[in-house]
Every structure is written in C-alpha cells, then in structure tokens.
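Researcher: We're teaching a course module on how sequence relates to structure. For the next exercise, students receive a sequence and then see the predicted structure as tokens, so they can try to spot secondary structure elements on their own. Here is the exercise chain.
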Amino acid sequence: MQASRIIGWISLTVVAAAVTANGQQSWSASGDATAIIPNQAFGKLPADLKEKIVLQLPQRDGGTRFVFDDLKPDQVRTLSKMFQTQGLRPRIFRPVSCDDCDDSGLLDHKVPPVHNGAYGKPQKTPNTQARARPPLQGRGVRVAMIDLGKVYSDHVEFLDSNKASRVSPRASQTESDEHATADAGTLGAAGINSSARGSAPLANIVAVVPTTDYWSAVESVLDVPISSHSTVVPAGWHGQEWWGIVGQTRDAEFGRYGIDAEIADTLSARKPQHLMVVAAGNDRDDGPRTFVQPVEHLHRVRLEDGTVVWQSSSKDTHPRDGDNGGFQTVVGACVAKNVVCVGAVPDIGAAANPQATVFTNFGPTLDIRIKPDIVANGFDVFALGVKTAYVSQLAGTSQAAPMVAGIAALIKEGFSLLRGVANPTAAELKAVLLHTASRENLPPGPDPKLGWGMADAKAAADYLEDKSAIVQTVVIKPGAPTTLTFAREEDKPFRVTVVWTDPPQTQAGAEKGALVSDVDAVVVAPPNGSTTHLPWVLEGTSPFAAKRGPNHVDNVEIIDVAAGAIGTWTLRLTLAKGGPQAVAVALPGKEGS
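Model: And here is the predicted structure for the students to work with:
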C-alpha cells in the first residue's frame, strides 16, 4: 500500500508554548488539518481522529481527502507519524485588508501618489455605470460573503422600506465585524449615501463565518451562484513572522498550486454553477518592520518527527516578499484555475493609466498561468462601518474582490433579464467578465500585474444586450474538433474568449502544470481561412510579457484580433489533452467587440 501524506493546512487555533533543547521558545501548532488517505487505510485511523472529521472530498486519483477539525497537538503528531509529511503547513486565514493599516483598517501612512493624483475620481467599475435596459442592479441575485466576522445586517444600506434586510443571517451592531461589513457594503450597499453604493445594490448577501474549517463553510453555500472571498492564508512575511520554512529564501507557497487551490478547484468542478471570486492578497513588498536584517522574528522549523514548530531567531534573513519585481506572489485559492482572482488598483480618471496598488499581489503562478484574472478598485474606498455608519480610506484586495463579485451578480442578472438564461454556468459568468475587461490606455494582451484588465460593469451589460453577441457552452471531445462561426459586419477589432471549469489537479501533478484538460483555440479569418489568430500566453521568464501563441497552461484562452475583416469567421476548438470538456465561449457581435 502506498503511503499517503498530509498535504494541507493546520489552522493555528491553539498555540502551545514550549522550550526546545537549545533554549529557544517554540510554538507547536494544533487546530485543523487535512489529509488524503487511501480508502483501504481509513480503518487504521484512531477513533478519536475519526470523530474530528468534518468534511470528505473524494479524489480524482483515488482515496479521499478528510478535513479534521480542532485537533490537539498530540493528534497532529499522530497524523504526521502515520503519513508522509511533505507539505505540512501551519495555516490561518486572515482578512486581506492592507498590511500597512491600523486596527480600524484605515491607512496609517501616506501611499505614494500614482495615476497623476487621480485618487477620488469616478471609479471605472461602480454600478452607477452599469446601465442597460432594464437597469442591472443585482436584484434578487444571491452572493455568499465568506469572511471571519459577522456582517452588520441592520445597517441602513441593507434595509428595505419595511426594515427587512438583504443580508442573512441577521447580526446586531455589537456582534458585527468592521471588515466583513465594509466588504458586504462594497458589494451590496443600496447607495443611500451615494459614495458608498455597492456594485450590486439590490443583491441578497448570504453572510458566512467559518466556525470550523474554511472550506466546509464554502461547501455549505455551493448552491449560491457566486461567493466572495476576502480572506487569505499567510505566506512570506507578516509583521515579525516568517511563514516559510527555515532554509528557504522565498516562501515556496507563493505562486504554488497548493492545498487551497486544489480544494477550490475540486468544489468548483463539483458545482459548475458556482463562481468563486477571490482576493489576490496584499503580500507584495511585505517584510519585517525594520528594513535592516537580521532582525528578531518568528519562523517555522520542521522537526525530525515531522512536527512543525515556531521558533524565535535573530540570525537568518529572508528577502522581502516579491523581491523579484513583485512577481509570483499570488497565493492560496487565488492560484486555483476556476476562481476569479482579483487584484487592486486605485480609483482612476478617464485618461489615467491603470496601475497596481503598492500592495496587491502579482502573478503569474509558478506554472506561468495568468493571475490575477482581473482588477478593481481597492484603494481609498469609502465603505460601510459598524461603530460609525461609514468609513473612508479602506485599502486592500478585500475591497476589490466584493466589487467584482457584485459585477458578477449584475452579469448573472443580465443573463436572465436580457437573454432569458436563468442559471448561467460559472465559466459563462467568468467568460463575460473577462471578455469585457478594460485595458484602456494599456498595452494589448494580459500581464501578471493587472491580469486581463479592469472589471467593466457597463461593458458587460452592453455586451449582454447585444443579441448578435453569442455566449454558449459546447462540449469538446478527444479527436473531434468543434467549429463555431460568427459574422462581422464592420472592420473593427474584436475579441473571442474561451473559458472552462478545469478538473482539479493534484499538488504533485501541478509541479508539471496545473491544467488537466487542454483546449486549444484558433480563430480563422475569411475569406479562405489562410490567416489564423492564436490566443495570448505569457513568456516563461520575468517580466512575463504577453505574446501570441499556443496556450497549454491556462483554462482561459482569449484571442484579440486587431483588424477584423467583414465576413464569416470561424473559431476552431481542439482538445489536446483530457476531456470530454464543457467550454464556455463568448463571441463578438456583428459590430461590437
């Protein structure tokens, strides 16, 4: 029988102080853990461990992932001894507000001005621009908000004329959390104060606070079409803590398809109508509070028996996060293939070039997939408060993610009102979101800082209103290429977008590439098909520039045609690996992009 391995995260809900033989203080982790266990080995688990199981996830390659809740330190050690311990990693989830913020979430320093001082100008992505006929406001669309605190459901921005709240469950002011309430408002505030209006002001918010395992909480809301995630697992530097393993100069979790990415893709594949919108995180340029190293800090050490402990050190040094230009700092669920990973930009004026905030994490992933997928406003955000009705100057990808989740709710509403499609798939929602992303004043193609560009609610609404623009799902089978045709009546630039919910990859398999089903897309030009256009893909080395060519790493393939001749065009889809695979396709209209 092949030995299994603990491959997941241990949530530091209990920390026991101890003193090692060399006199250093250490902390032995306990809390939650996850392990893939062969079905035939399940019977060998001690009864006290079986009682701690809160979630079971069957694996594509055999065996079952078991998530254990509230383990004692000796139970963690038992798991470590029973199974191999590669990848054992202490984990906590934390809000992704700006790391340079004080406890209230307000900036405690001045961020260097960018965008020619364009802060405070109208955002590119608020719902006030999302006007179709009928107007899209997310009416009745349910969005789950996964956060570590309760949302103040009775805030005036969530109440209707009968004092009924669009947030469930209800939570009083005294038990509510500032971070969760601000994020919920960015998504769904009604706009009584117009500066605080959310991107989907009539959406219904299902507020979820994980009480045991984070992914168990997500699993409980898979029937909700969209979820917003503004928490992240730590990596690299956090204050005076180094979350890598001693001996590493860079935390190996950055850019890696790890446990959280695998579980996110597993749940997405299980429920292809559920779209996860995930904050990219704010790790870039994190470091110890003093720039001079070595400095007294905590770091993690793996002992001979596989146990991971925290130790204090003043001798070793680690570069600041993202010291290679900030690249490949995405982490956790943001690295998953099927989520929408959201980075942060400041408010921009119509003539400003979008630039990343000073903190938002950059891609690509270690296997050079394009991340983040998209960006939205995450700086100087005017948001809802708990102690006070409103707060200003919030910063972080925590604010950008719910804005995009709200725009996804508008797109879902648009499918229903404008196209008669009540339940679009997550891949179809993602396809429209990325198809209509704005790269105004930016070079063509994606990049590892801003992904495909700014989320653009108005462009998405306009696209859905164009009945000549086709969004459909087709199933591609091995050895059977599929062709779709579309007409162009004007010689203008246009885009073709292909997205699919890819099966989960294992962490070991992802070392050779996370993609399981490889769909190749080619656009063929009229009149005789002699000219073809290929999708964007990133170069394999820094600065990871975009180029056109075969893409064998992403489950998003976008083809931009600079000058589209009038006539009938063809999209050819071929399955190079895996499958059969359902694929969402967004085609341009006869005149629009």
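Model: If you want an answer key for the exercise: Residues 1-32, 84-94, 98-132 have pLDDT under 50 and may be disordered. The radius of gyration is 24 Å.
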